[in-house]
Amino acid sequence: MLLAGGGIAWWALAGDGDPMDHVEVSGGKLVTGDTESYGDSDDCDDTDELSYNDCDSYSDSDSPTYEFVYKITNEGDEPANYSVIVNGFDKDGEFVGQTYIGTTHLAAGKTDADKGEFDEYVTLEDGHKLSDIKSVKVAWVERMALAN
């Protein structure tokens, strides 16, 4: 009976595979100067009273960012949320820093693809700068299956 229960639990948990296989990151480049951002778009309405949610908070920044492309594919049988840690490395393969990406309520079999970035708010190791990042790699993925 114990073996049957363990087998059922293993089958239920292993059915969606390793969530690390659901996420890909690629490319990457240092972007400097003012870039188009949410604050520059027509969708931005600065009507709330919360300063941290201000549409202008990033639009006037000339700080460099390191941008990369990511793709999250829900290979499970039900909708899921994904939380992902992406590590950045220098030309020698040394760790520079990490950033977070994710998606919510991604339907089974669907893909969310977008740009992620390391920005001025990322803590960098050992005196590194964003310009030191030469490659990115998925370090950790949490997949939270949803009931609906």
How many runs of DSSP E, i.e. beta strands?
A: 6
Q: What's the total helix number?
A: 1
* Shape call: elongated
Provide mean pLDDT, rounded.
Answer: 81
Name the poorly predicted regions.
Answer: 7-14, 37-41, 56-60
Structure, described:
This protein is 9% helix and 40% strand. It has one helix at residues 2-14, and strands at 23-31, 65-73, 80-89, 95-106, 111-118, 135-145. It contains 1 helix and 6 strands. The protein has a 3-stranded antiparallel beta sheet, with no helix packed on it. Strands 4-3-6 form a 3-stranded antiparallel beta sheet, with no helix packed on it. It starts with a helix and ends with a strand. With 148 residues, the chain is mostly beta strands.
Question: Brief description of this entry?
Answer:
This protein is mainly β. It has one helix at 2-14; strands at residues 23-31, 65-73, 80-89, 95-106, 111-118, 135-145. A hairpin with a 5-residue loop joins strand 3 (80-89) and strand 4 (95-106).
SSE map:
Elements: H1 2-14, E1 23-31, E2 65-73, E3 80-89, E4 95-106, E5 111-118, E6 135-145
Which features does this protein show?
elongated; mainly beta; 148 residues; three-stranded antiparallel sheet
